[in-house]
C-alpha cells in the first residue's frame, strides 16, 4: 500500500469512527428562561474552578447524549459550558483528531454507571445506600434505574446544592416526564475537607451499618494528600462494619503535576495504596481497557491506546517526550468477617 493510500485509509477509518455528536448545538428552551439564566450568570461570576468543573462535566454528558441518557445534563451545564465544549468538538472534527473532546468524561461516566449497578447487585437485594462525594451536577438519581431500592446522599458545597435544587425545580416546572429513579435523595451541604464531615452525614440520615457504595468521581485529585487520605481511610474503616464499595478515579503523578495544574492528590499505584488502608479487593482499569472504552476509542493510535502499550512506570512517552498522563478507574471493596457482620446487623 502506498503512503497516499495508507493515509486515505487512515482518514476513512477515523471518519467512520466519529461519534454521533450533533453538528449544530441546540440549546433547550428552559435555558432561556429568566430564572435559569440568572442562576447560570451567578455560577459564572461567583463559583471557583472546582465548582465550575461540575458544569463542565454536565456539558460532557449533554453533548455525548448518544451514549449517555441524562435528562438534566444540558440544564446543569448551562449555555456557556455547552458552547465551549461544542466548539472544541467541532475543532476536533475539522482536525480529524484522534482524541475527541469530552470522550474521557463519557467513558468515565459510563464506567461509574456500570460499576454502581454491579456493586448494588452484589448486595443481593439487601438495603443499600449510595453516597456521592463531591456530587456536583450529578443526575444519577434521575437517570439510573438501579437506584430504585437505594437511599442516595449527594454531598457538596451548600451553594452548589442550592443551585442544583433550583435547576431541578426549573426542569420539573418545564416538563412532565422528569421522575426521580432513586428510592430517596438527600442533599447534604458539607465540605469533606472538614474533620467532622462524616458526623454531619450521619445527622442527615446516613446509617453506617447499611451496605454502602461510595462514589468519588472527579473529586480526589482536587484534595490535598492529607485530605484525600483521610477520606479514603474513613471509607476503608467502614469495611469492618458492613459491605462497602468504593468507586473512584485517580490521577497519576504526571497528570497532577503539569504546569499550572489545579490538582494536588495523586497515586501511581492505587491497587497498592487501597489495601494498605483496609480494602480487601481492588480492581484497576485505565481509559481504553476492555471495561473502560465502551466502543468510543476506535483509533488504535489515540493517546489512551498508546499509553496502554507502555509500562505504567513510564513517566515520559518515548515517542514525543510528553508526560504519560493516566487516569485510573478504581473499584475497591471490603466487608467484615461473618461473625462481626452478624453482630453488627442483629438489630436490623
From TrEMBL:
One Pfam family cited in the UniProt record for this chain: LCM
SUPFAM superfamilies: S-adenosyl-L-methionine-dependent methyltransferases
Keywords assigned by UniProt, alphabetized: Methyltransferase, Transferase
Entry-linked Gene3D superfamilies: Vaccinia Virus protein VP39
Biological process per Gene Ontology, one example term: methylation
Superkingdom field: Eukaryota
InterPro entries: Ppm1/Ppm2/Tcmp (IPR007213), SAM-dependent_MTases_sf (IPR029063), SAM_mthyl_Trfase_ML2640-like (IPR011610)
MF GO annotations: methyltransferase activity
Family to which the UniProt record says this protein belongs: Belongs to the UPF0677 family.
Protein name according to UniProt: Leucine carboxyl methyltransferase
Originating species: Arabidopsis arenosa
Lineage: Eukaryota, Viridiplantae, Streptophyta, Embryophyta, Tracheophyta
